[in-house]
From TrEMBL:
Residues annotated as signal peptide: 1-19
Keyword Signal annotated: yes
Protein name: DUF5916 domain-containing protein
Source superkingdom: Bacteria
Carbohydrate-binding domain ranges (all copies): 50-196
Organism: Aquimarina rubra
Pfam families listed in its UniProt record: CBM9_1 (PF06452), DUF5916 (PF19313)
Keywords: Signal
Keyword Chaperone: no
Stretches assigned to the DUF5916 domain: 238-441, 476-894
Length: 898
């Protein structure tokens, strides 16, 4: 470990000593002019108004992809005008064969066919920007650009206006962007970063107004400049968007169940608002938000016991999420994970209901209200503040005689997130910080004498006798600092951060935290951690330090270290998979920047990584190679392989000793056809295998997309996985006072397919369907117990039961380990077969910019199949043969812009 850190230190030091000449590209400048009383252009796609004559055309675009710094196949030119409310852009996209202009329709942000876009760095911070794209078919695309072009957030949906037209010279477009949708400071003359890009579809060619060399360290930092914006006043945005929802649910009726009588009708309403506190900073508000039109999460099963990360899809939390992002380490770990807000209630319903009891349990926690204050000031301050309150949720239980009891399954909870960053050093550096707080109102739940209530407040809660929330932490706080410094025209960088967490709660809650899979303080072979049942708080740290070369020439390299201390806990409003972990990595990448007759672009990459825990155990070493090539016909191939000579894992035995897996090798191969074609596909295969057949993994991927005509597209993405493992964890039991960790051979098979259909009547009226059948089954054989968990030989690691030791009857395995004729312990049958189908059919009509009507039909089926059945038989029995649950809803919104 010490030598590894020394190597990283030497590597980072050499970055400061390394100097390399870079390509010098002259910055282009476009000078706009105001309308000054002239009539504003009519946005119809035809550039005919005399007001456009106030400014000159600018063109001379240069090819960016695939053959950078060469003349493009077709030229493009543009004009920009403005007044006190709007920015106006006109495009002329020449095409020698207008009949071949690709006018494919898609949903918003689909970017299909020919298109042209403008990027505006109105902050002029050389890191962020606003992107407006218009396709030849008139479909809008809009994104917020951050991290110098490494992140494009399509969830940003501003109000703007556009139209296109095709003529004998090619195609034209007109765009009108309200200045209220942009962010800029107050100044006599604005200077903004400016870039324009055109996609010439037939040749899959990108040309740009401001040249960006292929070895540039970023995107926004390379923009040209927009000048001439004189005395424009910052626009204080005020938008109010009320909504109403009518919802009807149907589901299988259950005899005698008062909560499942076959259908349910609901009316709901709420309000979203956007208030410009200043032109730089915006307040977003939501009251009783509804996310019924949001696409369902994909199905997944995790046999390792860890939580599954799902991406955020709810509009309120998705917009401007980059400002709140704080990935302090590798993977998905983040100080803020918005899916915690409105999560499924965490509490159980108390004692298990008997057969004559029925349960009505909320599926999600109600968000009473939320507010976001976010933006970036002209002098380089990025600010984000989020505050949200979720309602106390109650499950209802009723028996056959009509007697009811209730139990709290989620307390009233307050979530707070604050994020700030400051640019300096001519925007080449920044420092920042984050603070989060989660506070649960547990006082009125955990501290009640239900048999002797002595206040009106507690009297209201007498019926809530069975609460099961003593495992929840009362409060959780995190704080962090981060920085990044770029030099040599941003071609070299060093960045890092540190995070500290502090959680508080009852002794039961903190003991439960110590025993969670994330921490496992109860590990029997760990000397650096142990469970303390008297603790009422935990404090931990995490962070990273990395540096490297991000631009200039063909080579890129990065090295760094991540760490998460044993007591680090983020899962109240963040995402943390595993604590007690130190990771080191280094990678080198070579880019083939100049296309040849064989390929358009390509790269190869080599990476080494290793892992340790805080006791100093050397847990993992891995070497990986991968490469990518995009051929001249626009087909592509991606290939990779890795070798893991050392694999120790602290979590496999769920609190038992450290476990060793046999040496592993894996490889993958993916290739795909030209994505521009009406029919295109991707095929892939992933294979992993360990010595002595400890485990293997096979994954087969097929993705097919077909667009028979411009307004309709369809795709189907089936996947099949098979994952046999000789030592799949089953359970822990006791044998004569000694812990027994039971594993077995599993044959797990998983089949899924996501299906999408999109029909675009016009750019503002679309019909979209999404469906996903999912089947996963696992059958267990060859049960065994752990003998020496870190033995190199698999046969010494576990001991198989023979036929005289284990028997199976009534869905239970009985084990007579010492063969004395008495059952020493039993194991429940772990075989499983999970079947699920989810689908959404959505009609979306944006009847005026920013105002929408949704018609939604959602359907779901969940079932438990027979593990001995074939996968397709489970599909037939548990999906096609079952009555689904249906949700029909109509949601209407109207956006008032004041």
């Amino acid at each position: 470990m010490k030598s590894t850190i020394q190597v990283i230190g030497v590597f980072l030091f050499t970055l400061f000593m390394n100097a390399q000449d870079s390509t010098v590209v002259k910055k282009r400048i476009y000078t706009t002019k105001p309308l000054n009383g002239s009539e504003a252009p009519t946005i119809n796609g035809i550039i005919e108004e005399s007001s456009w004559d106030l400014v000159e055309w600018s063109g001379d675009f240069i090819e960016n992809q695939p053959d950078e710094n060469t003349p493009p196949s077709e030229q493009t030119k543009f004009k920009i005008l403005y007044d006190q409310k709007f920015l106006y852009i006109a495009y002329r996209c020449y095409d020698s064969d207008p009949g071949k202009i690709e006018k494919r329709l898609s949903r918003r942000d689909g970017f299909a066919g020919d298109w042209v876009e403008i990027n505006l760095d109105s902050y002029h911070d050389k890191r962020t920007g606003f992107s407006f794209t218009i396709t030849a078919a008139g479909v809008k695309g809009d994104e917020f650009i951050s991290d110098n072009g490494n992140n494009w957030d399509g969830s940003w949906n501003p109000i703007w206006y556009t139209a296109t037209n095709i003529d004998d010279e090619g195609w034209t477009a007109e765009v009108k962007i309200p200045l209220s949708q942009l962010k800029f400071g107050k100044s006599k003359e604005q200077v903004w970063g400016l870039q324009l890009t055109r996609r010439f579809f037939r040749k899959e060619e990108r040309s740009v107004w401001q040249r960006v060399p292929q070895d540039a360290p970023g995107w926004v930092s390379e923009f040209g400049e927009l000048r001439g914006l004189i005395d424009i006043e910052p626009q204080k945005q005020l938008e109010i968007q009320p909504f109403g929802v009518v919802q009807y649910d149907t589901f299988p009726e259950e005899d005698g169940n008062p909560f499942r009588d076959g259908d349910e009708f609901k009316l709901n309403g709420g309000l979203d608002a956007k208030i410009g506190i200043t032109n730089d900073l915006t307040m977003d508000l939501t009251v009783n938000p509804d996310f019924g039109q949001v696409e369902a999460d994909p199905a997944a099963i995790a046999l390792d016991g860890f939580q599954i990360f799902f991406r955020e899809q709810r509009p309120f939390f998705v917009e401007n999420k980059n400002i709140f992002d704080y990935r302090f380490a590798n993977g998905q770990d983040n100080v803020f994970y918005s899916r915690r807000i409105g999560r499924s209630p965490q509490g159980s319903i108390g004692s298990s209901p008997i057969n004559t009891e029925f349960v009505d349990r909320p599926t999600n926690t109600t968000i009473l209200g939320a507010a976001k204050f976010s933006g970036k000031t002209k002098d380089g301050w990025s600010i984000g503040i989020l505050e949200s309150v979720t309602e106390r949720e109650i499950a209802k239980i009723e028996d056959a005689d009509g007697n009811r009891r209730e139990t709290i399954v989620e307390p009233l909870t307050n979530y707070f997130v604050g994020r700030v960053q400051k640019d300096f050093n001519d925007r080449n550096s920044y420092i920042g910080g984050i603070f989060t707080a989660t506070n649960r109102n547990l006082g009125d739940i955990l501290n009640i004498d239900y048999d002797n209530p002595d206040t009106d407040e507690t009297s209201e809660l007498v019926g809530l006798r069975e609460n099961n929330l003593n495992f929840l932490r009362k409060s959780a706080y995190t704080g962090g600092l981060d920085f990044r410094h770029n030099w040599k025209e941003r071609k070299y960088f060093i960045e890092g951060n540190i995070v500290t967490s502090h959680v508080e709660g009852s002794k039961e809650a903190i003991e439960a935290t110590q025993n969670e899979l994330t921490h496992l303080f109860q590990r029997v072979d760990a000397d650096h951690v142990e469970v303390d049942p008297n603790r009422t708080s935990l404090t931990g740290t995490g962070g990273k330090l990395i540096g490297g070369k991000s631009g200039g020439g063909n080579w890129r390299y990065t090295a760094g270290v991540f760490w998460r201390s044993p007591e680090l806990e983020l899962n109240d409003v963040g995402f943390l998979r595993q604590a007690d972990d130190i990771r080191q990595f280094a990678n080198v990448r070579y880019l083939f920047l100049k296309p040849t007759k064989f390929y358009r672009r390509a790269n190869i990459n080599f990476e080494q990584s290793s892992a340790f825990d805080f006791e100093g155990n050397y847990n993992r070493i891995q070497y990986e190679f991968n490469g990518y090539i995009n051929y001249q016909n626009n087909w592509w191939t991606e290939v990779g392989a890795a070798h893991k000579p050392r694999i120790y894992i602290n979590t496999i035995l769920r609190g038992g000793p450290r476990w060793r897996f046999s040496e592993e090798n894996f490889a993958f191969l993916f290739f795909g056809s030209d994505s521009r074609k009406k029919f295109n596909f991707t095929m892939g295969y992933v294979n992993s295998g360990a010595r002595q057949n400890n485990f293997t993994f096979h994954r087969y991927v097929l993705r097919m997309r077909y667009q028979p005509f411009d307004s309709f597209s369809m795709s189907i993405n089936p996947e099949f996985e098979r994952n046999p493992n000789k030592t799949q964890y089953v359970t822990e039991t006791d044998f004569d006072g000694t812990p027994r960790y039971i594993t077995a051979r599993i044959d797990q098979q998983t089949l899924s397919a996501s299906i999408r259909l999109n029909y675009n009547i016009n750019p503002n009226l679309t019909i979209q369907y999404y469906g996903q059948p999912f089947i996963s089954r696992g059958t267990y054989t060859d049960f065994n117990y752990v003998n020496n968990p870190i033995a190199s030989d698999l046969n010494e690691r576990v001991t198989l039961y023979d036929d005289n030791q284990i028997s199976f009857a009534d869905d239970v395995y009985s084990v007579d380990e010492n063969r004395d004729g008495t059952v020493d312990y039993t194991i429940g049958n772990p075989d499983f077969a999970f079947v699920q189908f989810r689908s959404n059919l959505v009609v979306r009509w944006e009847y005026i910019p920013g105002s929408e009507i949704f018609l939604v039909w959602s359907q779901g089926v969940n079932g438990l199949g027979d593990p001995r059945d074939h996968l397709f038989r489970s599909l037939d029995n548990q999906i096609f043969g079952q009555q689904p649950e249906n949700t029909f809803l109509i949601k209407a919104t109207y956006r008032f812009v004041l």
